[in-house]
Amino acid sequence: VRKLELYQRYVVPEYWYVDLDADRIEGYRLAEGRYGKPEQLWRGDTLSSVVLPDFSCEVDNVLGDSEEA
Prior knowledge:
Helices cover 19% and strands 38% of the residues. It has two helices and six strands, in the order αββββββα. The protein has helices at residues 2-9, 59-63; strands at residues 14-19, 24-31, 34-35, 39-42, 46-48, 56-58. The strands form two sheets. Strands 1, 2, 3 and 4 form a four-stranded antiparallel sheet that branches. Strand 1 and strand 2 (24-31) form a beta hairpin.
């Protein structure tokens, strides 16, 4: 919560929170000065960015090996 408020105050356009315990990534994007509800990305999804339009990355590559493997 602290980082969200700090990033929002300094107008960071987007940030990603990698939650290894939940096996997901949450993407926050600034709209009208505030972060809305996060986009939740799971294994098999592709992470993209509005700040870096040519960037994409498989969520599995960020999360690493699954504990189920």
